[in-house]
User: Which sequence fits this backbone?
């Protein structure tokens, strides 16, 4: 038994929910990016290479 | 600043069922373009380099803060927006968004943008953004707009802050260059808006907003446009000899201020009969030129800053 028929209202709400979802994902990306830049002092690749160097050196 | 956006694509939506675009329209996207551009110029013209991602975040948060103040403005002004043709299709008067939703969105985004701008750059920039939102919403929208014909003059300060915030985000301070960019937008706003008021004549009358055209008459508004344009031209050309100016900026400023002064003089000389006869052609042309005027001046400041990186910009 189907619970309910797909209504135009659901389509409109789907669009709104997708928009909110994308905003939340963008927010996570921004916070992550800001954290990386602040923690590494802006030199993300250098910090990553430093990590590898430490790992290689034991 | 002006917002001429209308949202015709959503007219078929049922009342109370807002779409994502309706909430976005609350943020006055067209005004946001000016905010983003001038803030970007302030950020890039500053002598302190900013990490590209931090710079991107700073501009984003300034834009969100500007959008938040737009949402709060629409919440408070829903009654007069309904009366004016230009704004009647905005989400609240059109019934697509509840006033309380706009208030909630505006407050949440205000807090978010100020805190995150402070975290991303520095608290001077975050504080300036908070003050700008307060100035636009409380001082301009709630107080001045409905109480004095000088509403545009004083309220224009809110739209002038973004380059100063961009500069503060980069440097952590407010220098004379930031003040000059502030003054440029501040002095530009009155003639820009009064030209609009001249050809959107019945809107402000109907809404009871004490625009200069309503309280002091249209002749007085034409005089005011000319006086402010003369003052603006002196400021804009004078800026060409400062540290944010240079030969490119000065050339742009001389040409555009010449055209702007010519437009203001023509507006001053015209009477209502002549304006109505050609459907406010001169006033509309002046308004369009005013948009180009501001973008070109800030574009030239940006170009000078870019050339300076190669040892070419400015007077040095």
Assistant:
């Amino acid at each position: 038994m189907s619970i309910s028929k797909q209504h135009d209202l659901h389509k409109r709400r789907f669009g709104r929910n997708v928009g909110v979802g994308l905003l939340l994902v963008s927010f996570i990306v921004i916070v992550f990016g800001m954290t990386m830049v602040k923690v590494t002092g802006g030199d993300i690749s250098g910090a990553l290479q430093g990590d590898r160097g430490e790992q290689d050196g034991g | 600043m002006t917002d001429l956006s209308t949202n015709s694509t959503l007219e078929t939506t049922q009342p109370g069922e807002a779409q994502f675009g309706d909430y976005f329209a609350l943020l006055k996207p067209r005004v946001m373009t000016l905010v983003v551009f001038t803030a970007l110029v302030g950020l890039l013209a500053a002598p302190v380099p900013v990490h590209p991602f931090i710079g991107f975040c700073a501009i984003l948060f300034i834009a969100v803060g500007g959008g938040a103040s737009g949402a709060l403005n629409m919440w408070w002004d829903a009654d007069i927006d309904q009366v004016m043709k230009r704004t009647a299709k905005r989400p609240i008067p059109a019934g697509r968004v509840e006033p309380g939703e706009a208030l909630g969105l505006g407050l949440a985004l205000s807090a978010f943008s100020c805190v995150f701008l402070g975290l991303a750059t520095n608290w001077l920039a975050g504080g300036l953004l908070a003050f700008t939102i307060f100035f636009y919403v409380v001082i301009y929208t709630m107080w001045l707009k409905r109480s004095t014909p000088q509403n545009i003059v004083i309220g224009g300060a809110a739209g002038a802050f973004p380059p100063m915030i961009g500069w503060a985000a980069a440097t952590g301070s407010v220098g004379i260059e930031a003040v000059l960019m502030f003054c440029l937008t501040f002095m530009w706003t009155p003639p820009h808006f009064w030209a609009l008021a001249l050809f959107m004549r019945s809107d402000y009358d109907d809404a009871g907003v004490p625009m200069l055209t309503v309280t002091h008459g249209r002749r007085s508004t034409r005089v005011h446009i000319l006086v402010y344009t003369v003052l603006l031209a002196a400021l804009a050309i004078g800026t060409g000899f400062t540290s944010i100016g240079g030969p490119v900026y000065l050339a742009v400023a001389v040409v555009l201020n010449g055209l702007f002064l010519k437009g203001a003089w023509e507006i001053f000389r015209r009477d209502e009969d002549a304006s109505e006869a050609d459907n406010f052609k001169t006033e509309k042309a002046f308004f369009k030129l005013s948009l180009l005027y501001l973008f070109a001046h800030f574009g030239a400041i940006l170009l000078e800053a870019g050339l300076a990186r190669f040892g070419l910009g400015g007077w040095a």
